[in-house]
Amino acid sequence: MDTQKLNIIQAVNRALDHAMEADPKVLVLGEEVGDREEGGIVGATKGLSTKHGEHRVRSTPISEQAIIGSAIGAALGGYRPVAEIMLMNFMTVAMDMVINHAAKLRFMSGGQTAIPIVIRTMTGTGFGTGGQHSDYLESWFAHTPGIKVVAPSNPNDAYGLMRSAIADDDPVLFIENTPSYWTLGDVSGEIIPIGKANIVREGGDLTIVAHSLMVAHALAAATKLAQEGIEAEVIDLRTIAPWDRETVLSSVRKTGAALIVHEAVREFGIGAEIASEISEACFGHLKSPVKRLGGAFCPVPFSKPLETAFAPGAAEIEASAREVAAPQETA
Amino acid sequence: MVDDAKASKDVLADIFGKALLIRQNDERIIKEIKAGRLITPYYSTAGQEIIPAALATCLNPADTLCTIYRGIHDMLAKGFPLEPMWAELAGRITGSCKGKGGTMHLTHPESGCMVTTGVVGSSMPIATGLGWAAQLDGKGAVSVASFGDGAANIGAFHESLNLAGLWRLPVIFLCQNNRYAEHTSFANSTAVERLSIRAEGYGMVGVTVDGNDPDAMYAAARAAVDRARAGEGPTLIEALTFRFNGHVLGDAASYIPSEELAAARAADPVAALRARVIREGILGEEHIKAMEERNAAAIESAVAAAYAADFPDLSEMKRDVFANELV
Which of A31, A64, A233, A263 is catalytic? Predict the structure, then answer.
């Protein structure tokens, strides 16, 4: 396709449309995905049921277990369903199907069955949606063998990662950030491989590892830091599980410092895993301790000043980056 | 209402043959576990054989089955072969799942055994999806979800029945009501006396039958399968039965009143069908003895082959986690 300016909603929509055109086995299901229900709460599936038929794009009742179970069953029957769980917090309702079944059936069947499904879900703070509509829960899934987790930060990656997720023979959780849905960007139509991070800014003084909305904040921080001569290398993970160790570790070997940023609660978040791997693999290269920034250890609060303070922003990233970029004296 | 079509002599012989193999296999598994040769949790199916045996006479290999940890009877009836089953029970590499699934996750897609779940109720959402696939394929295949009475009280039951009813999917929800959800009696866990009445709430036909009666069970299965193949939607069959053992082997089952258990064992459906096929001249005693010997030999051979096989190499822990082997 020719390069076009699209937002993330449009990029996801385009990827689904193209995948459905290319493979009649691709299906879409979820609450309100059909055009009679306006093609999704943000319109990500708009037009698909009209174009590809309501038998392939099926609006469902509010039944998360049945949505994921039906996707698993259809996959066992030879299809490639893309299931939408409207909000990431609603994954909790479908966890048995996701964790005990989608992720494990291949292994438990000794490779006789495969579950090539994609689960699309959106989340993020910023809209005052409070404690049950805003959480980033990626570490739960990254902690489960058998499921892949991707989280695009821009429209081009959203398109390319969605095409890869649909083509993948394993279950893939596809996390969309709500506040950045309407951010425009060039979409080239390139396929972005799962498991490959993107160095979105090169620099020699520290490595900032981020995904989803935090990439934009990290880039904003890096621009400020450059004004005082600190060059941050910003890595967009794109895929959380399996994460791109090679790209991250070789960057940290070069810069000697690492800061990992995510919106999910900092404690037991993916930053802990990445920090630990960096410490084990790059200990001799490090000029300062590896640092993590994450959401506060509380449910996402409603009140605006609290909600804003909950998630890391560019200012905090900038301050933490300055700290890790400077060589620290050992005690 | 179940029509009162009786099973033909051939069908009765078929049901008996399947039920007999299931019973003999169950007895052998228990024997191997008690002898310490087989190390596995085991959920005996003794007493429930007629249900899947009758249903299976209406199914073919393209029809799919999602069952539960107490599901070996369902799978044997569906055509799961003995050798890969026994090797799986023994955790060997020659098992159907390379020893990585085990007793609670037996899988054999060639015979239509797609999923065995260890989670109560979870056969239903997946079977609903297989029903959707069958509907899209348009070849008349049927998806069966097997589960127990306990599973009728979990959310997955209600979500699945509603979706299957709404989409008119070719799914048979087969509830084997063996009167006990783990240790809890049906009366202490369920607000209604007949689970089949719940079908009406989901826009589908529901029937309660004596699952131990081959005629009644066959008629219910036949009607449900015909309905599904004709595109007329799902059916909930509540098949009343009784399990002869505790929830898991080794459970003393003190929660089952002894007179209740004694009455159920006295009405053993496999023994009853055996007597009937002899009485009605469908199968001769000698013929049945030969069947038993054949089954015993086939089971013996599967057991021996299982024990002679290797355990999986540790490298198997890196395989089948994803499509590509872990590095």
Answer: A64
- Which member of A69, A79, A109 has the closest CB to residue B125? A69
Class for the domain spanning A198-325: alpha beta
Quickly list DSSP for B167-236.
HT--EEEEEEE-SEETTEESTTT-SSS-GGGGGGGGTSEEEEEETT-HHHHHHHHHHHHHHHHTT---EE
pLDDT tens digits, one per residue of A34-88: 999 999 999 999 999 999 999 999 999 999 999 999 999 999 999 999 999 999 9
Q: Where are the domains of chain A?
A: 4-187, 198-325
Nearest Cα of chain B lies from the Cα of A80 at a distance, in angstroms, of 10
Q: What is the pLDDT along chain A (331 residues), one digit of tens a residue?
A: 899 999 999 999 999 999 999 999 999 999 999 999 999 999 999 999 999 999 999 999 999 999 999 999 999 999 999 999 999 999 999 999 999 999 999 999 999 999 999 999 999 999 999 999 999 999 999 999 999 999 999 999 999 999 999 999 999 999 999 999 999 999 999 999 999 999 999 999 999 999 999 999 999 999 999 999 999 999 999 999 999 999 999 999 999 999 999 999 999 999 999 999 999 999 999 999 999 999 999 999 999 999 999 999 999 999 999 999 987 665 5
Q: B122 to chain A: nearest residue by CA? A: A97
Q: What pLDDT is recorded for position A327?
A: 76
CA–CA dist B274, B56 (Å, integer): 18
**Chain B contact set for A241 (CB, 8 A):** none
pTM of the model: 0.97
- Domains of chain B (ranges; CATH) run 9-82+101-287 (3.40.50.970)
State the DSSP H helix or E strand holding residue B24, giving kind and residue range, or none if neither: helix B9-34
Burial call B37-51: b when 16+ CB within 10 Å, e when fewer: ebebebbbbbbbbbb
Give residue A288's identity as a one-letter amino acid code: S
Is residue B147 classed as helix, strand or coil in its secondary structure? strand
Which CATH number does A4-187 carry?
A: 3.40.50.970
Q: What is the pLDDT of residues A207-248, one digit of tens each?
A: 999 999 999 999 999 999 999 999 999 999 999 999 999 999
Could you say which of A52, A101, A133, A217 is catalytic? A133
Which residues pair with residue A206 across a beta bridge? A232
* A101 has catalytic annotation: no
Q: Do A100 and B119 touch (CB under 8 A)?
A: yes
Contact: A110, B97; criterion CB under 8 Å: yes
Residues 6 or more apart whose Cβ sits within 8 Å of residue B252:
B246
Neighbours of B17 (CB within 10 A): 18
Q: Residue A177 and residue A215: Cα distance in Å, rounded?
A: 11
Task: Quickly count: other Cβ atoms within 10 Å of residue B63's Cβ.
Answer: 24
